[in-house]
Design a protein that fits this description.
By secondary structure, the chain is of the alpha+beta class. It has a domain of 184 residues. It is 22% helix and 17% strand. It has 5 helices and 11 strands, in the order H-H-H-E-E-E-E-E-H-E-E-E-H-E-E-E. The strands form 2 sheets. Strands 1, 4, 5, 6, 7, 8, 9, 10 and 11 form a 9-stranded mixed sheet that branches. The protein has a two-stranded antiparallel ribbon with strand order 2-3. A hairpin with a 5-residue loop joins strand 2 and strand 3. Helix 3 packs parallel to helix 4 and helix 4 packs antiparallel against helix 5. The radius of gyration is 58 Å and the shape is rod-shaped. About 9% of the residues have low confidence.
């Protein structure tokens, strides 16, 4: 028995020696248990250096809604524009700059005479000569005077000073006008006023004087501070306050709408007839600004439009 064991040990040692061969009849090695078939490894794309260096974003840790945020996480409230204090004003020398609304042009009705930047209208030499020739033929007493320029558009290019509207009919005080205004006055007196007076007031005799309240004067309409320039400021207008007669009393221009006398009829007649000679006629029935006189002017309008009230 011991010999058999020795023999087995010798054979085992021989089997471990290099180049040793096992006997053909030796024990057959058993196969290992079948392992799961492994899929072939798929080659992975090589990562770029940039991608390897960029850290992936980490999900924010869940916060307890009841846990207040840290002081550094609380947003700082921003003030509203209206709550931002204005910068201290820098002291400047000289007049203050105008406010934006002051730079907006005013409408003509709100402009002063200086703001309108008007100019004097030139007159044709030929037209002026023709007009003065006709005045002379009617017997108007006048004299020429140098050009008037009172700035801001006030003035007359070729003014005349009228002392008698017609022969024997004085204009008091004498009036500085443009020739077309004096010519319209003479025609009105000759064609309408004198005939109406001879019919309505024959006992008063002839008209001796026209008492005027205003001729040339530099101002706006109705003497206002703002608005359109008056035709008086251009020599185009004259205001008649009353008529003096050789025998009777003066006939003052006043409201006579309900005056049923011949004097009332005379005033209403000459007021209506004025629109045949002047382009504007305003009488005491027009407004409060004309309750004591006739306003007569020769302003030119489109289509020869006339305003008579």
């Amino acid at each position: 028995m011991r010999e058999f064991r020795k023999m087995a040990v010798i054979l085992a040692a021989l089997a471990l020696l290099p180049g040793a061969r096992l006997p053909r009849t030796g024990p057959v090695p058993q196969a290992k248990p079948e392992a799961a078939t492994e899929a072939p490894a798929v080659p992975q794309p090589e990562k770029k250096p940039e991608e390897e260096q960029v850290p992936k974003p980490q999900p924010a840790p869940a916060q307890n809604p009841e846990t207040p945020p840290a002081a550094s996480e609380v947003p700082t409230p921003q003030p509203k524009p209206s709550e931002i204090p204005a910068a201290p004003a820098v002291e400047k020398f000289g007049p203050p700059s105008p406010a934006p609304e002051d730079l907006t042009p005013k409408p003509p009705a709100e402009q002063t005479l200086e703001e309108q930047h008007l100019t004097i209208e030139p007159e044709s030499d030929a037209d002026h000569a023709e007009c003065t020739t006709e005045l002379q033929s009617l017997g108007v007493v006048f004299r020429e005077t140098p050009r008037i320029d009172d700035n801001n558009g006030c003035g007359i290019d070729k003014p005349i000073i009228v002392s008698q509207a017609l022969p024997g009919i004085a204009l008091k005080p004498e009036a500085t006008l443009r020739c077309p205004t004096a010519l319209a006055l003479a025609r009105w007196m000759k064609g309408s006023v004198i005939p109406a007076a001879s019919v309505a007031l024959p006992e008063s005799g002839d008209i001796t004087t026209i008492n005027q309240a205003s001729a040339y004067i530099c101002r706006l309409r109705n003497g206002a501070d703002t608005g359109k320039i008056s035709e008086h400021a251009r020599g185009n207008a004259i205001d008649i306050a009353s008529f003096s007669f050789k025998k009777g009393e003066d006939v003052a221009v006043r409201s006579r709408r309900d005056d049923s006398t011949l004097t009332g009829a005379f005033q209403r007649t000459v007021s209506a007839a004025g629109c045949l000679y002047f382009t504007t006629v305003l009488d005491p029935e027009s407004d409060a600004a004309h309750e004591t006189h006739f306003h007569l002017d020769v302003i030119k309008r489109k289509g020869d439009f006339r305003y008579c009230h």
